[in-house]
Design goal:
0% strand, mainly alpha, 17 helices, 72% helix, globular
């Protein structure tokens, strides 16, 4: 018993280090004031340059980097990619402080695209270190750390600007310091021995260990002598860990076969998206995330047009903090909502998507900064609520490997759609529309999503109702 005790606590240190990294990497008080900073005297860029030539670079670079980073994260076993993210954060904020000119800031946006593309390493690293029964707990810790870091950073930024009258340049100095400490912290993370796709135990060993779990869960299995050699047979609390280097002489790491892994990913892709509920939730995830990214990217620009920061006091940091905190409360409340999502899920997505469309429409048409702030808070709360429900609906139907695959594909589709939208609507090489026309298009975009899912949801409810009526009629006919 005593010999096993340290192993039970082995997850604490890497989880604490990862949460500290996530908190510090998100503690960026200058981020809510990025657009005013770029338009202000420090960079002296024009609105057209910022909105139509600089910000689109982030979208393009994120799309191009996402898939190779997704594969590299698993192949390199997470930690090197986390270090790459930390280094990219340092480069981004160093350039924010000292880079000048359009081309340099566009190059900065490329590095910020690398930062967001490598976020997958932060959220998946911990699964290679802890046991299965701790997944939910450590996931909540890691996500809470980033939310808390972003909230504290936003509050600090607002207080320093409004109360202490600090310059936006000084806020960027604090952000650079925070991400530099985060980068130093990441070096102390232990290097995982396993990963989801390229480095894992032999399938035969996993199969045996899953049989152990089936037995412990009450399933009846045939007597298999091989099972008695599986570690944890005697311990009813043990699970199948990803991080154990040596289970027995039979546990080996598979030789990395990239073509084989890609074939397995393709087979899993076909199986995952052949399910209509999975396809429905995934499509909403992809389409809504596309619109969410666009609104988030250009909201500061809209606020700047409604109330110029050079002439008035702005409260971007406070609004970001409030929206994040209330969004976190909404996400927490999801766990207590009892709804038959299989029946009413699509209708709920439609109605809430319509609410998002209304919020974006108000932001665009009512040129009052306080109504813009309030609409933005509603927008973020509703999106965070729905994306959590969608994530839960998808995750409960998939293994961890397939969930990672679906998450990556959904994000890639969202970025593909966003790239197309940016290229047509925002980029100066396309229509290059002004910020108010852009937001009218985004409101229409969410309204279209609501309409599609409303029609599909009504069809699903009617189909389900007819099925239940048929079952009742059959039971009535068969009864004596």
């Amino acid at each position: 018993m005593d010999a096993r005790a340290p192993r039970g606590r082995v997850w604490v240190l890497p989880t604490a280090l990862l949460c500290l990294y996530g908190f510090l990497a998100s503690l960026r008080p200058s981020e809510p004031f990025l657009t005013p900073y770029l338009l202000g005297p420090d960079k002296n860029l024009t609105e057209t340059q910022v909105f139509n030539e600089i910000y689109p670079v982030w979208t393009y670079s994120y799309l191009v980097l996402l898939f190779p980073v997704f594969l590299a994260t698993d192949y390199l076993r997470y930690k090197p990619v986390i270090l790459l993210q930390g280094l990219s954060l340092i480069v981004t904020w160093f350039m924010l402080l000292y880079a000048q000119g359009l081309l340099a800031i566009q190059f900065l946006e490329f590095f910020y695209g690398l930062v967001t593309a490598t976020e997958i390493a932060y959220y998946s690293y911990i699964y290679s270190i802890v046991d299965l029964d701790l997944y939910q707990k450590v996931t909540s810790y890691c996500r809470s750390a980033t939310l808390m870091g972003y909230t504290v950073g936003s509050i600090c930024g607002q207080v320093l600007v409004s109360v202490a009258n600090w310059s936006l340049f000084s806020l960027n100095v604090i952000s650079l310091t925070s991400v530099s400490v985060a980068f130093a912290t990441a070096w102390f993370l232990p290097m995982p021995q396993k990963s989801l796709f390229f480095h894992h135990v032999l399938r035969s060993q996993v199969s045996r260990e899953m049989k152990v779990l089936d037995c412990k869960n009450g399933a009846v299995i045939q007597d298999d002598p091989a099972l008695k050699r599986v570690p944890g047979w005697e311990d009813i609390e043990s699970k199948v860990p990803l991080n154990v280097e040596e289970h027995s002489t039979e546990t080996q790491e598979e030789r990395v076969d990239i073509p084989k892994v890609l074939r397995e990913l393709w087979r899993d892709f076909l199986q995952c998206y052949s399910s209509r509920p999975m396809l429905c939730w995934s499509m909403w995830w992809a389409f809504s995330t596309c619109g969410y990214f666009q609104v988030i990217n250009y909201t500061q620009g809209l606020w700047e047009m409604v109330l110029p920061s050079q002439n008035f006091e702005i409260y971007n940091g406070g609004v970001e903090a409030v929206s994040t905190l209330l969004g976190a409360v909404a996400v927490f409340a999801v766990g207590y909502i009892k709804v038959s999502w299989a029946t009413w899920g699509e209708v709920a997505l439609a109605l809430f998507s319509l609410l998002i469309a209304a919020a974006v429409y108000v932001m665009d048409t009512v040129r009052n900064i306080w109504l813009c702030y309030a609409s933005y808070v509603i927008f973020r709360i509703v999106y965070m609520l729905l994306i959590t429900i969608a994530t839960f609906q998808i995750a409960t139907k998939l293994s961890m490997e397939r969930y990672a695959l679906v998450f990556g594909i959904n994000t890639f589709i969202a970025l593909g759609l966003q790239t197309l939208l940016t290229l047509i609507v925002v980029d100066s090489s396309g229509l290059g529309l002004n910020i108010f026309t852009q937001f009218m298009i985004y409101a229409s975009y969410f309204a279209a999503i609501a309409l599609v899912f409303l029609v599909s949801g009504i069809y699903s409810v009617m189909k389900n109702y007819r099925r239940q009526e048929e079952m009742r009629s059959r039971s009535t006919t068969s009864s004596p």
